[in-house]
């Protein structure tokens, strides 16, 4: 997702001022992606340079409204039609961290996994609380929130999976024999 | 505020000597009024044993389990049973409703077993069904209800009367994600609005996230926790 396409989307219906675009962008994404006004104008300047928007009118105080061009509409449509790739997501850092933790002797990988799980769970709890506090909120904000909730959940499931692979890979610590059998019995007798 | 559930050094061992199997090994867990705590962990980590011990359905090998100040371990069998009927509510994955009884009869049952007169019990049961949003289904049989409605009946049964502790074992396991969320919302509201202490066992992170605190069990030991949470005002900063 880029600010560029976000602004084009907001200009689709009618020309708008820069500060207006900033406000609407934040409202649509539930302020999960705060923009400063400088970013908005830098982006508009680039869009203008590329022929995707043009200045529509200029007020006495020098502020301009911007409108989308035909090329801008084409660009926007193709953005909406293109799936987002999973490349260069922040999670890659996590994957690399775990891989290195495994490769470097003396690192307690299970502890690394557990710390990450607690941290991700904490943000999942915070997102869930935002959702709870906003039962009748705007649908676009709700969708952004749900997307972050499911992404956090996926990361936790991935961590669980990593941990079970690690356990199988390394064998269980010597001081904790039989535990698996142990609890299977409990579950059955329950 | 003093805890409603206070577990100290809880150990549960099945069998003896070489064959001994350690389901729980020295677990401490305290749940305050109004607090919802989620317990996560792989299958076989001791989650369900923890819940059955907290609910007086299983006896620990060592340790204390205090519910509203009463130690379930030293209490007589009759004392535990009475506490279970009056103070502890249990919600299971498979609802455990009696098919031959209507919704309101299912909910009234623990009160009647405890000696409440039938008409009074029914009144309380109707109020509980009302609270979980299915007052109009009081005279339906479980078989004529959807999964979500049945789980609501089970929750009504778990909160009827003056319950202090709500124990839920995978309560959303048999429900689709939308209905599951509604059930969590309900559990959450009970804790927030009625000061009940809740313990939720789940393997789904998205559901555990409804809790104030999430604790992790591994091989019968608590290995970590997430929460309690920060001030709500600070949430949006840094969430991107």
From TrEMBL, chain A:
Ranges for domain Transcription regulator PadR C-terminal: 91-166
Basic and acidic residues composition-biased segments: 178-190
Domain of life: Bacteria
InterPro entries listed in its UniProt record: Tscrpt_reg_PadR_C (IPR018309), Tscrpt_reg_PadR_N (IPR005149), WH-like_DNA-bd_sf (IPR036388), WH_DNA-bd_sf (IPR036390)
Chain ranges of the Transcription regulator PadR N-terminal domain: 7-77
SUPFAM superfamilies assigned: Winged helix' DNA-binding domain (SSF46785)
Positions of region (Disordered): 171-190
PANTHER family: NEGATIVE TRANSCRIPTION REGULATOR PADR, TRANSCRIPTIONAL REGULATOR YQJI
UniProt name for this protein: PadR family transcriptional regulator
UniProtKB/TrEMBL annotation, chain B:
Pfam family, one: ABC_tran
InterPro entries recorded: AAA+_ATPase (IPR003593), ABC_transporter-like_ATP-bd (IPR003439), ABC_transporter-like_CS (IPR017871), ABC_transpr_LolD-like (IPR015854), MacB-like_ATP-bd (IPR017911), P-loop_NTPase (IPR027417)
tRNA processing keyword on record: no
PROSITE patterns per the UniProt record, alphabetical: ABC_TRANSPORTER_1, ABC_TRANSPORTER_2
Presence of keyword Membrane: no
Key words of the record: ATP-binding, Nucleotide-binding, Transport
Domain (ABC transporter): residue spans on this chain: 5-237
A GO cellular component annotation in the UniProt record: plasma membrane
Name of the protein in its database record: ABC transporter ATP-binding protein
């Amino acid at each position: 997702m880029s600010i560029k396409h976000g602004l084009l989307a907001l200009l689709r219906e009618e020309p708008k001022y820069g500060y207006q675009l900033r406000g609407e962008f934040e409202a649509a994404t539930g302020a999960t992606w705060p923009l400063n006004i400088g970013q908005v104008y830098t982006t508009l300047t680039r869009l203008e340079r590329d022929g995707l928007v043009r200045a529509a009118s200029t007020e006495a105080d020098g502020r301009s409204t911007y409108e989308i061009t035909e090329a801008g509409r084409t660009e926007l449509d193709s953005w909406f039609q293109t799936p987002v790739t999973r490349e260069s997501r922040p999670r890659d850092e996590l994957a690399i961290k775990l891989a290195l933790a495994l490769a470097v002797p003396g690192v307690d990988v299970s502890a690394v996994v557990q710390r990450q799980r607690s941290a991700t769970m904490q943000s999942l709890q915070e997102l869930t609380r935002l959702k709870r506090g906003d039962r009748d909120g705007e649908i676009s904000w709700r969708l952004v929130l749900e997307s972050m909730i499911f992404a956090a959940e996926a990361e936790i499931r991935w961590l669980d999976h990593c941990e079970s692979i690690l356990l199988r890979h390394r064998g269980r610590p010597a001081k904790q024999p039989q535990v698996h059998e142990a609890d299977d019995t409990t579950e059955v007798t329950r | 505020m003093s805890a409603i559930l206070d577990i100290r050094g809880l150990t549960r061992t099945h069998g003896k000597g070489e064959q001994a199997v350690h389901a729980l090994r020295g677990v401490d867990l305290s749940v305050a009024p109004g607090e919802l705590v989620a317990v996560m962990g792989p299958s076989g980590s001791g989650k369900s044993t923890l819940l059955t011990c907290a609910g007086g359905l299983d006896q620990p090998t060592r340790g204390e389990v205090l519910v509203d100040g009463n130690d379930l371990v030293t209490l007589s069998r009759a004392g535990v049973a009475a506490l279970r009927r009056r103070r502890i509510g249990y919600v299971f994955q498979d609802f455990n409703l009696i098919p031959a009884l209507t919704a309101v009869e299912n909910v009234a049952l623990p009160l009647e077993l405890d000696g409440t007169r039938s008409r009074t019990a029914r009144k309380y049961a109707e109020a509980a069904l009302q609270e979980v949003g299915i007052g109009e289904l009081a005279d339906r049989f479980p078989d004529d209800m959807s999964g979500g409605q049945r789980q609501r009946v089970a929750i009504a049964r778990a909160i009827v009367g003056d319950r202090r502790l709500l124990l839920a074992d995978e309560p959303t396991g048999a429900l689709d994600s939308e209905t599951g969320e509604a059930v969590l919302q309900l559990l959450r509201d009970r804790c927030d609005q009625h000061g009940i202490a809740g313990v939720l066992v789940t393997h789904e992170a998205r559901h555990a996230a409804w809790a104030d605190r999430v604790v992790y069990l591994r091989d019968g030991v608590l290995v970590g926790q997430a929460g309690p949470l920060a001030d709500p005002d600070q949430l949006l900063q840094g969430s991107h």
